[in-house]
TrEMBL record, chain B:
SUPFAM superfamilies: alpha-helical ferredoxin, Respiratory nitrate reductase 1 gamma chain. PANTHER family: IRON-SULFUR-BINDING OXIDOREDUCTASE FADF-RELATED, IRON-SULFUR-BINDING OXIDOREDUCTASE FADF-RELATED-RELATED. The keyword Secreted does not apply. Pfam families: Fer4_9. GO terms for molecular function: 4 iron, 4 sulfur cluster binding; metal ion binding; oxidoreductase activity. One of its GO terms (cellular component) is plasma membrane. It comes from Pontibacter fetidus. Residues 300-330, 373-405 form the 4Fe-4S ferredoxin-type domain. InterPro entries: 4Fe4S_Fe-S-bd, 4Fe4S_Fe_S_CS, HdrC_iron-sulfur_subunit, Helical_ferredxn, NarG-like_sf. The keyword Transmembrane helix applies. Keywords: 4Fe-4S, Iron, Iron-sulfur, Membrane, Metal-binding, Oxidoreductase, Transmembrane, Transmembrane helix. The chain crosses the membrane at residues 6-24, 67-89, 109-129, 155-173, 203-228. This is 4Fe-4S dicluster domain-containing protein.
Amino acid sequence: MEENKKLIKVPTMAEMAANGQEPEVLFWVGCAGSFDDRYKRVTRAFVQILEHVGVKYAVLGTEESCTGDPAKRAGNEFLFQMQALTNIEVLNGYNIKTIVTACPHCFNTIKNEYPDLGGNYEVIHHSTFLQQLINEGRVKIQGGGEFKGKRITYHDSCYLGRANDIYEAPRDVLAALDADLVEMKRSRANGLCCGAGGAQMFKEAEPGRKEINIERTEEALATLGTEGVIATACPFCMVMMNDGVKNKEQEQNVKVFDIAELIAQAEGLTK
Amino acid sequence: MIGISNIIFLIVAAIGIGLFVWQIRKIRKNIQLGRDLELEDNPPERINKTLLVAFGQQKMFKRMLPAILHLFVYVGFLVINIEVLEIMIDGIFGTHRVLGFMGPVYDALMAVNEILAALVIIACAMFLWRRNVTKVPRLATGVEMRAWPKMDANVILITEIVLMFALFAFNISDLKLAELKGHELAGAFPVSSMFINAFGSDAGTLATIANVGWWIHIIGILAFMNYLPSSKHFHIIMAFPNVYFSKLAPKGKFMTNPAITHEIKAMLDPSYQPPAPEVDAEGNPVMQRFGAKDVEDLSWKQLMDSYTCTECGRCTSVCPANITGKLLSPRKIIMDTRDRMEEKGEHPAIFNPNHYKEMGVERVETTDEKTLLRGYITPEELWACTTCNACVESCPVNIDQLSTIMDLRRYLVLEESAAPASLNAMFTNIENNGAPWAFPASDRFNWADELYLPSKN
């Protein structure tokens, strides 16, 4: 059915600048969104949504580099600032004003920590961005789409939630699916970390009784019952929850999806 | 009439207050060991926060039962202080219930006082029950909860109960004496009037009981005040400034070190002129440590945090690392900071630091180094943190446990290059590939290959 789909040519900032154009938003993809096989699907789903609604966007492509978040949380302020100052030079060089990203760690770092180093942008997490698209009626999801009535629980990302007080945007996005949203006991400001923050993603856990992601997955599974979806809005949470679900051998019954994937699927963009 | 007892009172009060001031100065000096930090911005928001979180106890109400019990004790503390003022005036000038002239206002005040005092007794008894009988885990367990912190909590609760009983003894006998003499006592006493015959009707005994009750209450308060600087109960004072000076930026914003910025800018651009380094009194440049090894590397606010800590353990009970059995306990980080600060600087009247090997085999493998890092807090604890901010969110008095953890981590990485090997590998990946994983930077845009959108027609 090749004729029923169109190839997306993702625009880069370099091309746009060469044509004397400026995008509405820069989509900051992040390292997980660029390299992690599972999260690449989230990046692709989000681009499909951007294309679908006709947002004028661009990416940095190979000019993008790590924000420095994992270095900073691991205590390596030097490396963080190296990354930050280099990225700010690139971003300021393109006169970037608005940035959207699907990674709460990139979001937090660029929004809160880049201004001290000379990088001042309006930074939007994709949950807020999607919420706006839904509120403006640009994403409609007729009849709720394929997740209508399905049981979904949202796992709060620490760097979106407690770190930046964004609790409702991802929930509002999920509400558009007309699904059966259930909350875990530890949610919003009391949400339990997936275990990957603070550079834990890149090291073995310290000795203890249990892995944090198992503790969280158990809570999510108990909340969902026999089957359903764990919705995330962070690449690290996604890895941790996926690993947890596999560890509990529930991958047939419980799927882990990013909110952008759920919206793209419900809109029929991923067929 | 001023007699010998007034003079004794004056001397006792002067000693009590003097000793307290002396201790407060020591604590002030300790807090000033910390690094300078400007926290004067945005006073309206700070005042607002103080009203909500400190005066309004906002964050306590995340847990209903302790919040309500604590509210009784807190309001009791605030209101009963008005009576303490009266006691002071009576004690110095030999008057009796000097504020009685206020008539119905005094009636209301005394009545509210009595009801609050009764509620304080009930709340403290329930707190003792929670600590010692039902043993609420966050109060009863944790490597940092050793003999002294546990005893400290019980001392406070029992003292508060004794103080309230002394107040009732004074009121009951005063009330009965007035009845015997056939005159009206200023004030209304809903609780004491129920027990008016508790001490019989012998005027001499009643006068003695009233006297003893009065003295126990006032000496008790002075002694308690001097106990505060050695105790977690110091939060009744420190909670207010600590909330006022708490972080206003989003919790996800971590400190940026400007000294490092200058170094990097000079590296990237040889023509960049960094500002002249700070110099000390003798004109030598101040060598600033990156991160924190000991208490003087922390900011004064981080040191103030540890004097504000009530050791309630809410932070530790929501810490994902602690919940899953890792060594990290945010409460321990804060308590260790206080103990180390008092070991190194001044210490209050009673000084009982935690030492982690005295109880035999345990997991906290401190060394004999006389520093906060390793001497009290081990790298294993620091590396267990996910920086999730659950501890910071949970703290009723806005302590920032995470900032201290991060400063200690920074020291390990920047000054000792002592990060776990896997994190060093991550650093290398970022340096070489611009990503924490070992993927070539040229593959960064491959995700966009063969991406389609269904046609609308």
